[in-house]
Amino acid sequence: MDNSRNRLNDVFFYGLYMDEEILKNKGIVPKNRREAFVKGYRIRIGNSATLLRDEDSKTYGMVYSLTHDEIKKLYQDLSSYTSEALLIEAEGEVIPTLCYVLLDEPAEDEKNEEYFHKLIACLDKYTLPKPIKV
Predict the structure, then answer these.
(1) What's the Cα-to-Cα distance from 88 to each of 20, 47, 56, 71, rounded to whole Å?
(2) How are beta strands 49-67 and 93-102 bridged, if at all?
(3) pTM of this prediction?
(4) Residue 30: how many other CB atoms lie within 10 Å
(5) Is 114 helix (H, G, I), strand (E, B) or coil?
(6) Which of 23, 57, 64, 133 could anchor a disulfide with 28, C-beta 3.0 to 4.6 Å?
(7) What is the distance between the alpha carbons of residues 131 and 128, in angstroms, rounded to a whole number?
(8) What 3-state DSSP class applies to 19?
């Protein structure tokens, strides 16, 4: 097992960070890109995106392999997000990943139309299904 700073961790992204260009613009070198989905969660967009547990839902996104330092760099200014372990499906396999979510659900009246439209464009870029509920 590689315990060096170069060790890679699979991370599931369901919001704008699924866009490889956004990650690169933040100095991240995403590796091992895979389309994926997680069952039992739906996406909710308030000021930003989060996942909410919903046994009847499925959320699509991208999985990238990142180092711990890259993950820290991405979330250093997003302290309201916390990591959670998820089993996602990618390329016909169930794999464990890290995923960052908000612990507190956004208020019902909290919306971000600009974020939503950027997310739809990102889903189109990767030809991923769009969320039914936001």
Answers:
(1) 19, 25, 15, 18
(2) unpaired
(3) 0.92
(4) 21
(5) helix
(6) 23
(7) 9
(8) coil
